[in-house]
Amino acid sequence: MYDIEARHIIEALRSGVPSRAVGQYFSEARPKIMKEISGKLDMVCEQGKSGGMVICGKYGEGKTHLLNTVFNLAHSNHMVVSYLSLSKETPMDKLYLVYQKMIQNTYLPKRQQPGFMYELEKISANSPVANEMLFYAAKHLETDKLYYLFRSYLNTEDADEKFLLQADLEGDFIANAPLKKIYRRIFNQPVKYNVNFTKTKHCRDYISFMSHLFMQLGYHGWVILMDETELMGRLGKKARLNAYRNMADFLLPDRCPEAAFSIFALSASYVEDVIEGKHEYENLEEIYPEEQEPAKTVLDLLVRAPQLLPLTKEEINEVLCKIQDFHGRAYGWTPNLSAASLAESTQAGGYLLRTKIRAAIEFLDQLYQYGKAGQTTINELGEETFEEDVPALGDF
Predict the structure, then answer these.
(1) Do β-strands 260-267 and 222-227 pair in parallel, antiparallel, or remain unpaired?
(2) CB 86, CB 226: distance < 8 Å
(3) pLDDT-derived band at 100, boundaries 50, 70, 90
(4) For residue 272, how many other CB atoms are within 10 A of its CB?
(5) d(C-alpha 280, C-alpha 299), whole Å
(6) Which one-letter DSSP state was computed for residue 60?
(7) Residue 270 CB-half CA count within 13 A
(8) Element housing 226 (H / E)
(9) 313-331 vs 4-15: helix axis angle to the nearest 10?
(10) Is the peptide bond before 391 cis (omega within 30 degrees of 0)?
């Protein structure tokens, strides 16, 4: 009997594409850094203490897999998770584009698909959650736009208006004039902003608002995972410095949203290629001589970021043994191989963990389909035997 979940795991590993499911089942490696991250998540859940960290590693050494493992750990702690990759379309120097991508890729606990707006639809206009969020939007944010917007969202009965207001909360910001018109129609009152809202300056309000909302909805915190951070190196000089300033809002405790924890995954070559190669500290002194913070602190964090070391022989063997188990369950057979034999099969896969895994799966595929691979043969009992290069008597 084939195990569909095991088949999914094997095919995900074979493709080399990181998967949340793989992160759920292969979470034992790198116990030291996982223990550190687990402790930080506990501090968010128990004390509401926000923060962030940067991890770096070589290509194919498991950065994305680690993020997927944290994804599952956060959900097991009843935390909301946003997972996104920085890119040309989602550059870190434009926070409003990052926010839009974050909201599109936000997962509630025990949910396989992103999305949480249905939770907002359950909030009635005069409920305790609504009153708390309106008070927060009016008193604790840089602008009070979200007060007028969220109050309008809670009270409108017009489907088109509700759609526009929800789209704004998701990062497709509407202009100030239509919002003022909607508010006046509902409440017969004018909108008087304390500060005129612009998305390039005040997008942090939305991140803070959402973080507070998740807490009010009963979740234990918000985990934000950002992959492909090294793509910041392709930005222009000033854009990179602005990107570092924006990163501070996710990494520095005094600037982070409430009960939020962020992880940036960065290529190990970024320090040499970008920070040193493009002279980032000198650029910062040149462009922002009087306002080097918080970008300078973020640069320091990037330079000191812990690097994912290659897995030890014992850790690799544990991964390979688990792959062997999943392969057997996926295809309904029992590969009774020694750890040494399976490890030997990965030697031609190079030094990257990703290619070692694919080599092991290919080796198991050959044994399953043909009964032999290289010098290893699987007999009818599923036990391995080895062919010896002994000449036949007739060869003499």
Answers:
(1) parallel
(2) yes
(3) very high
(4) 10
(5) 8
(6) T
(7) 29
(8) strand 222-227
(9) 130
(10) no
Contacts of 172 (CB under 8 A, 6+ apart): 100
DSSP annotation of 137: H
Quote the crossing angle between the two packed helices 204-216 and 145-155, to the nearest 10°.
Answer: 50
Confidence of residue 380 (pLDDT cuts 50, 70, 90): very low
Contact (CB, 8 A) for 176 and 198: no
What's the token pair of residue 45?
């859940």
Helix intervals (H) in the chain = 4-15, 20-25, 31-47, 63-76, 95-104, 117-121, 128-139, 145-155, 159-169, 176-187, 199-202, 204-216, 237-251, 270, 280-287, 295-303, 313-331, 339-345, 353-370
Q: Is the dihedral of CA 239, 240, 241, 247 positive or negative?
A: positive
Do residues 102 and 214 touch, judged by C-beta distance below 8 A? Answer: no
Tokens for 163?
């759609």
The residue among 136, 205, 140 whose CA lies nearest residue 168 is 205
Contact 84/102 with Cβ under 8 angstroms? Answer: yes
The neighbour count for residue 369, using CB atoms within 10 Å, is 10
Find where tokens 């927060």 sit.
136
Q: How far apart are the first and last CA of the chain?
A: 49
Single pTM value for the model:
0.83
CA 275/CA 301 separation, integer angstroms? 12
Structure tokens at 54: 């940067």
Q: For position 374, what pLDDT does the model report?
A: 62
